[in-house]
Amino acid sequence: MCLAVPMEIKTLDHDLNIAEVEIGGVKRQVRLDIIDEQPLVGDFVIVHAGFALRRLDREDALETIKLFQENLHLELS
Amino acid sequence: MNSHDPLAEFKDPGLCRRLLAKIHAELTAPLRFMEVCGTHTVAIFQSGLRSLLSADIVHVSGPGCPVCVTHEGEVAAFLELARKDKVIIATFGDLMRVPGPHGGNLKAVQAEGARVEVVYSAFDALQLAVKHPKDRIVFLGVGFETTAPTVAATIKNAAAQNVENLLLFSMHKLIPPALAVLLDDSDLNVDSLLLPGHVSTIIGLEPYRFIADKYGVPAVITGFEPLDILQALQLIISQIKDRRPKVVNEYTRAVADQGNPRAREVMSQVFEPCDALWRGLGRIPQSGLTLHGEYARFDALRFFDVAVENLPPLPGCCCGDVLKGKMRPNNCPLFGKACIPANPVGPCMVSTEGSCAAYYKYSL
Amino acid sequence: MHSSRLLLDSGSGGKASHRLIKDFFLQHFGNATLNRLDDAALLEISGPVAMSTDSFTVTPLFFPGGDIGSLAVNGTVNDVAMLGALPRFLSCAFILEEGLEMDVLERIVRSMAQAADRAQVQIVTGDTKVVPKGAVDKIFINTTGIGEILVQPHPQGHRARPGDAVLVSGTMGDHGLTILATREGLSFDAPVASDCAGLGHLVGELLEAVPEIHVLRDPTRGGLATTLNEIVMQSGVGCLIQENMVPVNPVVSAGCSFLGLDPLYLANEGKLICILPEQFAKQALTILGKNEFGTKAACIGRIIDTHPGRVVLQTPLGGHRLLDMLEGEQLPRIC
After folding, report:
1. Neighbour subunits, C (≥3 Cβ pairs < 8 A)
2. Which residue on chain A is closest to C188 by alpha carbon?
3. Given CB atoms, is B143 within the 8 Å cutoff of chain A?
4. Of A47, B34, B120, C96, which residue is 20 to 30 A from A41 by alpha carbon distance?
């Protein structure tokens, strides 16, 4: 129901409460009005309808993948 | 990880196939799960996952497509707003083809001369309002707990900037009350739920506890990549096997158990819960959001004195049964005949996220 | 020009019209046939002829990679070429809005002349109407093209056969995303340009080198998915496409991901689909790869005898699903 994609923070403007984000070369401004934890440049945030919803936890994502692989008794690549 | 797709691993075909094989091996009884969220519906079809799941794993698409559940009466009301003089409708693209009670939609009223702008963000509507000070911009607020805070933040900005020509028609809806209605229905034929990832980013885990506690149904919050969905299925299967239904957050990279309190605060400053009409499900108490306090002056319905009528569903439509998992889309007598994406009769055919529309679009 | 803006007089048929034609259109498009200014063009052409017409309207008029002028020439050139023809002559009719800036018109006309030059077609007849402000949106252009059929039997939509390979000449969706990126209300910044190009030479090279080509089509509006659906319906066959073999510019796929769009439904203006017997696929890919407009060419699937009239997509996961036609234009979505 809610299309949201991870995009990388390129620049931050705390006065205007906006950030420039990028995915695969496509850039857009997003609003930071509702994100709970202020992101840093280089962070990935989940963007929905022009607003950053939350910082994406990449370490957590990697951990999830690792668990998958262990779960499936695979060698870590 | 490459910069284009920080989640590329979650699409890894090899990993997915192995997990799928494991799921099939562990499956001891048929599984019927409901993916509440329309984005999950699309992901399951679009990735081809649906064609790879064994016939014993059946997915049923729930009410989690905000466009689909936008009520006929709400559509009639916004079409009326669109026809008003000096009004520009600002809307997400999703709503453009949603039909009203007499088949009209935004595309059609646009052809009659109404001014309609497709925007990507509610904030774009505020910018339109600044740009067109002599017109009234009516933003059509659809969406669940994910989208409502973005609209609330926009209204707060409009108030702070003294932009008086932006109005909002709030058709926002809340997921937990709708789930309670579905679970209360003794006809509901599903034994587990995939919970919507990005709604959960905002509301967290707590509001779903009742699903396992009261109804004994396993439920997993998950993401939208094939691997996310498969992992959720595996968790569900093991919960069913252990007879220990729980609500689990598998989407931890995007969902904190406590959700996003700041977004909820912005939402509650601007909105308060109200009863809402759901297409296919009818009136659900406290399942909608209405502007309150100092923000009530942005209410488009109040400003233009337009009411939402509780119009009856079209005869013959089985969307209620489809939504509850009692009927498969292609078993509905209207499916693919009277009811097609170009001319949808019921909510499930309305948007590409609806279960019938996805079935029609992707099924071989 | 007397005014920096176009006046209704310029479409009156009087002296102002003549000035517009002589000082302006002839200056850019001039060739022996057009310069005669007769009521019709006299053409030397022999054998079977392909003919196609198209009208062009686009907002904005100028976009990265092209403009309405290059689009109007290349669009018709490509349609003629897809029948296996060498495009030779174009007609060109303008409907212009009163008050249009003359330098905008000049940029467009100049761009048309360049595109025609590159495609080696001549604009041999034309027409100009000027209508009151508001009657059209700045400028509409119609072009009609004719060309000589190069081979027999020539490529046609109904000739796809089971076993045939399906090739595309490059990345899908560049034009569509470029236009979307310029739309008001969607403001995003993407380093992407329209693929707008004339494919007449490329088609000529293919037909010369490859013994048998069943179908050529340019996947314009509705994109690859829509065009493939048209072909399988015309040919009464099915088509199996490998999703991960379809070339898509990473910028286009990234743009699509956050707008909720599918690049397979986005328009292309300088690409072709080529369907031909499998044994000639490699040869055709080599020819395509050597041409500047075919460097990213790829074999994306094949024609099958099951699922007649339908396009089946095999996903990277190995699953299968329908790749249907769309109801209308794709709209950015939030859900």
Report:
1. A, B
2. A28
3. yes
4. B120
Q: In whole angstroms, give the CA distance from residue C146 to residue C91.
A: 9
- Domain C157-322 in CATH 3.90.650.10: yes
Helix B148-160 vs helix B122-131: angle between axes, to the nearest 10 degrees?
30
Instruction: Find out if CATH 3.40.50.620 is the number for domain B9-66+188-249.
Output: no
Task: Say whether B122 and A49 touch across the interface (CB within 8 A).
Answer: yes
Give the bridge partners for A30, in sequence order. A19
Which residue of chain C is at minimal alpha-carbon distance from B11? C317
Predicted TM-score (pTM) of the model is: 0.92
Task: For residue C24, give the DSSP letter.
Answer: I
* Chain B nearest CA to A14, separation (Å): 15
Sequential pLDDT tens for chain C (335 residues): 456 898 888 877 788 888 888 888 888 998 888 888 888 999 988 899 999 999 999 999 999 999 999 999 999 999 999 999 999 999 999 999 999 999 999 999 999 999 999 999 999 999 999 999 999 999 999 999 999 999 999 999 999 999 999 999 999 999 999 998 887 666 688 899 999 999 999 999 999 999 999 999 999 999 999 999 999 999 999 999 999 999 999 999 999 988 888 999 999 999 999 999 999 999 999 999 999 999 999 999 999 999 999 999 999 999 999 999 987 778 777 77
At residue A32, what are phi and psi to the nearest 5 degrees? Answer: -110, 20
Query: Domain coordinates of chain B in residue numbers?
Result: 9-66+188-249
Residues of A in contact with C256 (CB under 8 A): none
Hey, where are the domains in chain A? 5-71
List b or e across B32-61, with b for residues whose CB sees 16 or more CB atoms inside 10 angstroms. ebbbbbbbbbbbbbbbbbbbbbeeebbbbb
Q: Are strands B247-249 and B219-221 parallel, antiparallel or unpaired?
A: parallel
Q: Could you give the ipTM of this predicted complex?
A: 0.92
Q: Under a CB-based contact definition with an 8 Å cutoff, are residues B27 and B54 in contact?
A: yes
Distance from CA of B283 to the nearest CA of A (A): 20
CB contact under 8 A, A31 and B153: yes
Query: C228 vs chain A: nearest CA distance in angstroms?
Result: 28
User: What's the gap in Å between the CA of C306 and the closest CA on chain B?
Assistant: 11
Rounded CA separation C238/C229 (Å):
9
Say which CATH architecture domain A5-71 belongs to: Roll (2.30)
The CATH number of C8-149 is which of 3.40.50.720, 3.30.1330.10, 3.40.50.300, 3.50.50.60?
3.30.1330.10
Q: Which of C254, C260, C333 sits opposite A26 (nearest CB)?
A: C254
Residue B27 CA to residue B333 CA, distance in Å, equals: 32
